[in-house]
């Protein structure tokens, strides 16, 4: 298993991590993701560890804490061997202070996550989204205190815009507080908006990227095909999808290119799509998910090999689209605004 530094930190992580949003299946939204219970979760965790994937990602909001509980049970006795990531920010109940990135909420959520995970520290603690109601200084001071206390080792953010992340980095630098080392972001062949601003920011500020949904909510897994009905057993159709509305012409152009490269490499289209993400700038890790052992084994085989330059270019061309303003304007002068080098 290949390891990479996570951003500008000393922490090295495997290029694959296992996402446990499928653990629990509580509520209609997360039920569409998966309903993995304890015995199956134990087997999936063991499969990951055997393959060298010792990085596990969860969140307090996944099945309202049940995902953390199941993961905590699954890692008993091996906690010191792995990297554990969880998150807070999103709504946990109807109580007025039970959401956001305020001091009162974060201090409670850290303790709740530690209890559910049966551990006394969290390796990477993410702000799951940006809280526009709480001063950035309050959030970052609280996170710095958690790092100083030893309850959190590193902090990261998720789903931030460019200015959210840059403002946060600036505040941390101003006060000498712990800074975000990574951004967990939505990125795939089908959805490349991350490249417009967040990737250049990551390059400039040395922020590592942890990619979530690298298969675009399963759309790049091979079930979506030109001139065929949309699959009904996919989580998007079951109400558990993320991202913008499906751009079918773009998806099918990408699938045509994936089919060609899959035939050339002898890999599945999903493995090719995952491998493409791993070759992008700033990407330290991609989160893979699985409803069962067979899916996990397939996703684990996305590493240990690399696409050729020509294959990457073919996939780039099939998935390219015109960016929104001001990025299309900036790309008119690449001397002033260099496009990140992908190969």
Descriptive report:
The chain is built from twelve helices and ten strands. By secondary structure, it is an alpha/beta fold. The chain has one domain: TIM Barrel (Alpha-Beta Barrel). It has an eight-stranded parallel beta barrel, surrounded by six helices. The protein has a two-stranded antiparallel ribbon with strand order 1-2. Helix 2 runs parallel beside helix 10 (293-300) and helix 8 (248-265) crosses helix 9 (269-278). The protein starts with a strand and ends in a 13-residue tail after the last helix.
CATH class: Alpha Beta
- CATH superfamily, by name, is NADP-dependent oxidoreductase domain
Number of strands: 10
SSE topology string:
EEEHHEHEHEHEHEHEHHEHHH
């Amino acid at each position: 298993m290949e390891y990479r530094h996570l951003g500008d930190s000393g922490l090295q992580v495997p290029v694959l991590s296992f996402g446990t949003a499928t653990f629990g299946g509580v509520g209609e939204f997360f039920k569409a993701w998966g309903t993995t219970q304890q015995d199956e979760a134990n087997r999936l965790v063991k499969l990951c560890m055997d393959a060298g994937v010792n990085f596990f990602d969860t969140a307090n909001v996944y099945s309202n804490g049940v995902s953390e509980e199941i993961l905590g049970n699954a890692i008993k006795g091996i906690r010191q061997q792995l990297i554990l990531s969880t998150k807070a920010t999103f709504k946990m109940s109807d109580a007025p202070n039970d959401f956001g990135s305020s001091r009162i909420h974060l201090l409670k959520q850290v303790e709740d996550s530690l209890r559910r995970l049966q551990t006394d520290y969290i390796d990477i603690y993410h702000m799951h989204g940006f809280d526009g109601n709480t001063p950035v200084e309050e959030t970052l001071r609280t996170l710095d205190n958690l790092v100083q206390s030893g309850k959190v080792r590193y902090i990261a953010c998720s789903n931030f815009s460019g200015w959210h992340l840059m403002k946060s980095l600036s505040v941390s630098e101003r006060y000498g507080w712990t800074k975000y080392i990574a951004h967990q972001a939505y990125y795939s062949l089908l959805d490349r908006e991350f490249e417009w601003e967040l990737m250049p920011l990551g390059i400039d500020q040395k922020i590592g990227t942890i990619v979530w949904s690298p298969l675009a909510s399963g759309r790049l897994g091979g079930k979506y095909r030109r001139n065929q009905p949309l699959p009904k057993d996919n989580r998007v159709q079951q109400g558990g999808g993320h991202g913008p509305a499906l751009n079918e012409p773009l998806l099918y152009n990408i699938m045509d290119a994936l089919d060609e490269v899959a035939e050339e490499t002898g890999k599945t289209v999903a493995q090719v799509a995952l491998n493409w993400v791993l070759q992008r700038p700033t990407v330290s890790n991609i989160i893979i998910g699985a409803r069962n052992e067979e899916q996990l084994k397939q996703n684990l085989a996305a590493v240990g090999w690399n696409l050729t330059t020509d294959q990457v270019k073919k996939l780039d061309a099939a998935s390219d689209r015109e960016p929104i303003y001001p990025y299309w304007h900036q790309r008119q002068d690449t001397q002033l605004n260099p496009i990140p080098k992908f190969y």
